[in-house]
Design a protein that fits this description.
Distance between the termini: 73 Å
Structural class: mainly alpha
Largest sheet: 2 strands, antiparallel
Strand order of the largest sheet: 1-2
Length: about 1050
């Protein structure tokens, strides 16, 4: 399978050489240890005879041998693999019942078989909804019984002094080895199957939590790691199924993440080289594997970022942002023996040095661990190696705890948010400077953990924890000062807590970046920069006090000129994300984009970026990302780029001559962003400027063979303002339209889609819609592309068709009937209507455009065409609108009501009574009258979206004569529904979503004015047999526009009788 490698390594991050060798050894070759009766408690339930169990063992051994020999072939989805999977599941199901759970040999064999089958994905389990035998549940029951049958005399709790490293007995080693095998097999079984565990869950979770919280000893680190793996796989992809246990799991993970070994300064200095040598092996192992920490799925998490390739043109990192709660997070500290003085905390770096930690004043946040008495058993020459091994084991446990935390974060990200303070701690003193985080947390792991892979993992897990947190962090607000004795006094609101969280996260990341050694820890630095990228991409700075963006930028900007390609590219990624954050733009404009002190014209950062895009010897990935950063600046700061345009013009010309297409693409993307922001900037682009860039950069791109270049050229052209386009020479206008229409028939779908977008923009230009020939050419082009096999092309083409109908409406509204009559022939009308009806039945992304096109076309349709097509295309169009008003997405319903309003705005549109019309011979009322008004009333009564109701009211307010509303019964029903809707609006306040209430006042006014219009059209309520409540009457009068109300008052003095007002 595609994800087989990733999943295998996700399940099992094995660090112990002993455990790895145990996986590959044959059952018979393993150390026998003691006899079972000496340390295994008897468990009843053997269901097979001795001969039956022997036969079952032989069958399992055969399956194991077959799995090892034909692993590659069996992993494929073939008939042989399916038969093998079925046979293996039958054997395992029988073994769960028949194999003895108190026999060491049986337990070892089952662990080996289960691990091999599930780790290699040779067992294809049926769907979770299947009523077949639950093999996962059965295996969990069996292994929990086996695990509990071990250690009846308390060998696992023997010598529970924390941190001890005394030698263990052969009994304990054998017990622990078997328990590791059991947990490793369970980890393989539970991967993506946690939701299948039901009856065995309580026993299983108690075993795992108990093992993870057992006394910390070096010889038990592998057992803790396997238990953490099982926890991660148990909650992976289970959502909130086991959320009631998450609090306990968080506490366990916290103890495994933060209760680590700290050493004296001198010891750390002597150990640093040993740690680095040992960690390189684990780092190489992790680089060749996949893990759930990977932000890109199949690519491994700890892979160095030296390649620096671009896929979609955006940074491929998980969205990241963070928060903290104000308060003290207490940690369980190691208790030092009375005879041993406490050892101060020290923070080591991989550069071979260590510095004493400046511990926070609160002792609850201090973590101390003394060297245990057992350390004296080692000679001075052995101390360094022993402590280095202990550091490695602690690091592996922390790594697996991070994996488990990540699995929970992905399963229930929102439920984890209240528990962020457990892993992202704050101090009692608010962060005011770039001080190192001493409190144990993910930030402290990221900044000072002695194992590089753990630091890298902490960065990535932090990003995963903060996934989808942008909305949560948008509440961030700072009101109180961050200094002074009363800075955190009183009860803080949630927004203030989130604001404090946001500030501390910036402080933590900036502190870690300032203390990192880029010459030694390049991989860690890259991951830390990516973590910072996620922070600035997701945080909101509108209500935060200034300084955060500059703080984190200053801590990372030094890597912009690094000699390492990966560091440069990662720094540019970070800068692009920062400059793309809309809420940070005011501060950025005054800081990093302000002119440098030694240059009064060019901002310092901008000058550096221009040097990168201009440099001939600059690596291609760096030039590309520099252009992307400039694109972010151009998107928000048009004036900054505009003042330096001559230099960018030269750089663009140089870039277009580059051999690498990535540089040319990035340059065109920058040009598009600049043109887009220029079209809406306060200082509009002039025709001369557009003429220059069209001739120098854009038009010549159409001669390229690459369709992506043509698509980018079309995107750039589509941002030309209508006034600027009208000011171009006739030669340029004709050339542009010829190139765009030619690109619309390109073989590449991307180029066709971009051309459709450009046509959709041009078709609304006043100077172009007056050209009947050009209108027909553009219309035929986009109408044909509405049947394109590519969905993106159809979406863009249908959008252009909707704009085409709007363009025709503008011609009619501006009194250009002669142009409309010349352009809108019967053949073109028929083609537009048929295409729009087809689009209404297409993908949901297209429907709204088709509905919009129908409404606009019906508004401008001539009476002769309406009479000719009223039994065919007109009828189909009307009922298409009715269908979309009654069902479908909210966007579709809104557009359908708007389209019906457009249709009713055509005075020739047939609806209501047929008296005095050419339709009188057929019936007294147009056939679709009741259906049209019924659909509009249904939208007013039942739609939960207030904007849909507003459009339905607007449509009902269009007809100006009583005859348009049909017979008396229908009209009376319309008035009654509107009266009820006004009165029920107050009763529905608690039945609608919060976002709808911003439109409530607009809806109320629309309902009242629509009712006012109908009452005026009717000539009085007495003719309808209805009574108007005095309060409602006053609300109707109050809703009238000021001018209309003044006229009524001056003539009728606001008479009390509603009939006297003729309403």
């Amino acid at each position: 399978m595609a994800n087989a490698s990733r999943q295998r390594h996700y399940r099992h991050h094995r660090g112990s050489g002993q455990a790895r060798r145990a996986d590959s050894e044959d059952t018979s070759a393993r150390a026998p240890g003691l006899r079972q009766k000496e340390y295994i408690a008897p468990v009843a339930g053997d269901c097979l005879s001795s001969q039956g169990r022997h036969s079952l063992r032989q069958g399992l051994i055969a399956i194991l041998d077959r799995a090892k020999e034909g692993r590659l072939e069996l992993a494929k989805d073939t008939s042989d693999s399916q038969e093998f999977s079925k046979s293996a599941q039958e054997k395992l199901a029988l073994a769960c019942v028949g194999m003895s759970s108190n026999t060491q040999e049986d337990a070892e064999l089952m662990s080996k078989v289960v691990f091999t089958l599930f780790n290699s994905e040779l067992v294809k389990l049926p769907p979770a909804s299947s009523s077949s035998f639950n093999l996962v549940e059965a295996l969990c029951v069996y292994f929990t019984k086996v695990f509990n049958s071990f250690d009846p005399q308390g060998y696992n709790t023997h010598n529970s002094t924390q941190g001890t490293s005394c030698a263990t007995s052969p009994q304990a080693e054998t017990i622990q080895r078997n328990q590791v095998d059991i947990l490793r097999a369970l980890s393989a079984v539970l991967f993506e199957n946690g939701a299948l565990v039901k009856d065995a869950f309580a026993d299983l979770i108690n075993i795992l939590l108990g093992t993870c919280s057992s006394p910390r000893r070096q010889e038990r680190s592998e057992l803790r790691r396997m238990a953490l793996n099982c926890l991660a796989n148990l909650v992976h992809k289970t959502g909130s199924l086991y959320s009631t246990y998450h609090d306990r799991i968080y506490d366990i993970l916290l103890s495994n993440l933060t209760t680590t070994s700290y050493y004296e300064v001198g010891t750390m200095a002597s150990l640093s080289s040993t740690v680095r040598r040992k960690d390189r092996a684990s780092e190489r192992k992790l680089r060749t594997s996949s893990s759930p920490l990977s932000a890109t799925g199949r690519q491994n998490t700890f892979n160095a970022f030296y390649a620096a390739t671009r896929g979609s043109g955006h940074l491929a990192v998980a969205p990241s942002s963070t928060a903290f709660s104000v308060g003290i997070i207490k940690r369980t500290s190691y208790a030092a023996p009375a005879s041993t003085p406490p050892v101060s905390i020290s923070t080591g770096t991989l550069g071979g040095s260590a510095q004493p930690a400046d511990v926070y004043g609160d002792s609850a946040l201090s973590v101390r661990r003394s060297i245990q008495s057992s350390d004296s058993e080692y000679s001075d020459s052995e101390t360094g190696v022993h402590l280095a091994q202990r550091m490695q084991h602690d690091g592996k446990v922390r790594l697996n705890a991070l994996l488990c935390l990540q699995a929970i974060a992905r399963a229930v990200p929102k439920q984890l948010q209240p528990h962020w303070p457990k892993f992202l701690t704050t101090s009692t003193s608010p962060p005011t400077a770039l001080a190192t985080h001493k409190a144990p947390s993910l930030l402290s792991l990221m900044g000072s953990d002695p194992i590089p892979t753990v630091r890298t993992a902490a960065c990535i897990v932090l990003g995963n924890i903060l996934e989808s947190s942008k909305q949560y962090l948008a509440m961030a607000e700072e009101k109180s000062q961050l200094s002074g004795p009363k800075s955190h006094a009183g009860i803080l609101t949630l927004s203030e807590k989130v604001g404090s969280m946001t500030r501390e996260l910036h402080v933590g990341v900036a502190a870690a970046m300032n203390s990192v050694d880029s010459n030694v820890e390049q991989t860690v630095v890259i991951q830390m920069i990516k973590c910072g990228t996620s922070v600035v991409a997701n945080c909101t700075y509108e209500k935060m006090r200034r300084g955060l963006t500059l703080m984190i930028f200053n801590s990372i900007k030094r890597f912009l000129h690094s000699e390492e390609l990966g560091l440069q590219v990662a720094t540019l990624f970070f800068t692009t994300a920062l400059l793309s954050n809309t809420s940070a733009q005011p501060e950025l404009r005054e800081t990093i984009l302000s002119p440098a002190q030694n240059d009064n014209t060019t901002p310092g950062l901008l000058s550096q970026l221009m040097n990168l895009v201009d440099g001939v010897d600059i690596p291609i990935p760096v030039r590309v990302e520099a252009w992307n950063t400039l694109s972010a600046i151009a998107r928000h700061h048009f004036a900054v780029i505009h003042t330096l345009w001559p230099r960018f013009d030269t750089a663009l010309a140089t870039g277009q001559d580059a051999d690498d297409s990535r540089v040319r693409t990035a340059g065109l993307l920058f040009l598009e962003e600049f043109a887009k922001s220029g079209s809406s900037a306060a200082t509009p682009s002039t025709s001369d400027w557009w003429k220059d860039i069209l001739e120098r950069h854009i038009l010549k791109v159409f001669s390229e063979d690459s369709p992506s270049f043509k698509a980018l050229a079309c995107d750039c052209i589509s941002h030309i303002p209508a006034e600027t386009f009208n000011g171009l020479t006739n030669r340029l206008e004709v050339l542009i339209m010829s190139l765009v229409l030619g690109t619309a028939v390109d073989e590449n779908a991307t180029a066709r889609a971009a051309a459709c977008r450009a046509i959709g923009v041009f078709i609304l230009f006043p100077s172009l819609r007056e050209d009947c020939t050009l209108i027909v050419d553009m219309a035929n082009t986009v109408l044909d592309l509405c049947r394109d096999p590519n969905l993106t092309v159809r979406v863009r083409a249908s959008w252009a068709v909707g704009n085409l109908s709007d363009s025709l409406v503008l011609l009619k509204s501006n009194g250009q009937d002669d142009v409309l009559e010349e352009a809108l022939t019967l053949s073109l009308w028929t083609k537009i209507m048929r295409t729009a009806l087809v689009v209404c039945q297409d993908n949901e992304k297209l429907k709204s455009n088709g509905i919009r096109a129908i409404g606009g076309l019906l508004r401008v349709t001539f009476e002769g065409i309406l009479e000719r097509e009223r039994h065919s295309l007109v009828k189909e169009a009307v009922y298409a609108l009715i269908k979309n008003m009654e069902q479908g997405s909210l966007k579709g319903r809104w557009n359908a009501c708007y389209a019906m309003q457009n249709a009713l705005l055509n005075p020739d549109f047939p609806i209501g009574s047929t008296a005095g019309t050419s339709y009188a011979l057929d019936s007294d009322m147009v056939s679709w009258t009741k259906d049209v008004y019924g659909a509009l009333l249904q939208a007013i009564q039942q739609s939960k979206n207030f904007k849909v109701r507003i459009n339905a009211c607007a449509a009902l307010s269009v007809p100006k004569t009583r005859a348009k509303f049909g017979d008396q019964a229908l009209f009376r029903n319309i008035v009654q529904v509107l009266m009820d809707a006004v009165q029920n609006l107050d009763l529905e306040q608690g039945q609608h979503e919060f976002g709808e209430f911003q439109y409530r006042g607009q809806l109320e006014t629309k309902l009242l004015r629509c009712l006012d219009h109908l009452l005026q059209v009717s000539g009085g309520l007495s003719k309808l047999g209805l009574e108007l409540d005095p309060t409602l009457r006053q609300r109707i009068l109050a809703s009238r526009p000021a001018v209309a109300l003044a006229a009524v008052e001056s003539i009728q003095h606001v008479a009390e009788d509603v009939e006297a007002l003729t309403i």
